[in-house]
Design a protein that fits this description.
This protein is about 0% helix and about 50% strand. With about 425 residues, it is an all-beta fold. The strands form 6 sheets. Strands 8, 10, 11, 15, 20, 21, 22 and 24 form an 8-stranded antiparallel sheet that branches. A 7-stranded antiparallel sheet has the order 9-14-23-16-17-18-19, with no helix packed on it. Strands 1, 4, 7, 25, 26 and 29 form a 6-stranded antiparallel sheet that branches. A hairpin with a 2-residue loop joins strand 18 (about 225-235) and strand 19 (about 235-245).
């Protein structure tokens, strides 16, 4: 068995994609039961502590294919009501996803503690939940003290008020909050709450090199309610506007090579492209949050930011493929006897646990000096297993001395 406490697991296959590499973040939608809506797979109603909210992993754990190497995860949200909830879980897959990869999902442990951790899962992450801006992650350019706060205007959100200031051409006066530099191809995403009513109040996320070179995805008022994709290269601005009245919206910027794409979403799942620009070669790539306004009456608008995260990106993306039948943790035990039924004492006997139908080895142990043995195995319920005992070498040779058959019919032991 893996470690004490977890009683059930399923093998999950992720379809790989060339270039994904190691440490790719994959979104898995885990259902509480067969009645869960929109899930990739479910845990048969056997979770004893299913996630209840954002950043709560409950008793869900994920490992590499060896069944023991824990994978980092972050729970983005939980939808539905018990017993049919669906948890949206980002899992950082350690093995290379250039090709298909198997991982395990473990569950059914009432004593499990929370393991959700966005910092460990993503290239960059901040959920603004602690009430203090993390200066190891963020740096202000032109900070305007008194015009921003974390967790005061709204708990769990960063508020950056608009000033009568913006980034536009050579008119660069707005405060800019930047992350450390990000490398490779990625998507940078944030959720914002904003209700702009005056030209040109706006807020959003940037991939920022400097004041004159960036790509942005923003919610804006500009003679109407709009979503805007904006690109500025060497102080020359190009933008695309889409009519939109959302006051709670997800925006992101995707970088693939020298192509940058601005997108938005009402729910963080289905995304719409705003614009895409190619042949952009920025000297730096910081993630930035910027609240702006142009008109004299545009200052003072609260723009709220939550759940900034940056993850690896390749197209097509690695995605969930299939889940195996549930396996349960079972403890098999017995006594090592020779073919005449005599207990073998004073020496170690190797014990191999095999699936009867396939002959696949699912466990291995040795007997103690009194001939007793015990082995933890993961097995599908209602499956017969057999043991083969041997004094030396592997099973299947002249040294095989005895065996027994077990019928696994329970959900675990």
């Amino acid at each position: 068995m893996w470690f004490p406490g977890w009683k059930c697991r399923k093998k999950i296959t992720i379809n790989g994609s060339s270039g994904a590499g190691t440490g790719y973040q994959v979104l898995l939608k885990v259902g509480e039961s067969a009645g869960a809506s929109g899930c990739d797979f479910h845990v048969e109603g056997h979770s004893e502590k299913f996630p209840t909210d954002k950043n709560d992993s409950g008793d869900l754990r994920f490992t590499s294919s060896n069944g023991s190497t824990l994978l980092d995860l972050w729970v983005e949200k939980v939808e539905g009501t018990s017993p049919n909830r669906t948890a949206y879980v980002w899992v950082k897959v350690a093995d290379s996803l250039d090709s298909d990869v198997d991982i395990y999902c473990y569950y059914r442990n009432v004593n499990a503690t929370n393991a959700s951790n966005g910092d460990n899962t993503f290239l960059f992450f901040d959920d603004f939940d602690d009430g203090n801006l993390d200066t190891t992650k963020w740096t202000w350019i032109r900070e305007s003290s008194g015009n921003w706060d974390e967790g005061i205007t709204q708990p769990g959100w960063l508020n950056i008020k608009t000033l009568n200031a913006e980034l536009w051409g050579t008119n660069n006066t707005a405060p800019v909050l930047i992350s450390y530099e990000i490398s490779g191809d990625f998507e940078a995403q944030v959720r914002i709450q904003i209700n702009p009513t005056t030209n040109y109040q706006r807020g959003g996320i940037f991939v920022y090199s400097d004041d004159d070179n960036y790509v942005a995805s923003q919610r804006i008022y500009g003679n109407g309610q709009l979503i805007q994709g904006k690109r500025e290269v060497n102080a020359s601005v190009v933008r695309t506007n889409i009519n939109n009245t959302l006051t709670d919206v997800f925006v992101k910027v995707r970088k693939v090579g020298t192509t940058y794409t601005s997108l938005y979403s009402s729910d963080g799942e289905s995304w719409t492209q705003i614009r895409s620009d190619s042949d952009i070669n920025f000297a730096h790539r910081y993630i930035a949050l910027v609240s702006e306004s142009y008109s004299g009456g545009g200052g003072g608008l609260d723009v709220l930011y939550d759940d900034v995260f940056v993850r690896k990106y390749v197209s097509p993306e690695p995605i969930f493929s299939l889940a195996s039948t549930e396996e349960v943790a079972s403890i098999l035990s017995g006594t090592a006897c020779d073919k005449n039924g005599n207990v073998i004492t004073g020496e170690s006997v190797k014990v191999f646990i095999l699936e009867k139908e396939t002959g696949e080895k699912i466990g291995q142990t040795t007997s103690d000096s009194n001939g007793n043995w015990s082995c933890d195995v993961w097995i599908t319920p209602n499956t017969k297993v057999v043991t083969v005992l041997t004094l030396e070498g592997d099973y299947g040779g002249d040294t095989d001395i005895a065996g027994a058959e077990f019928d696994i019919t329970q959900e675990g032991s």
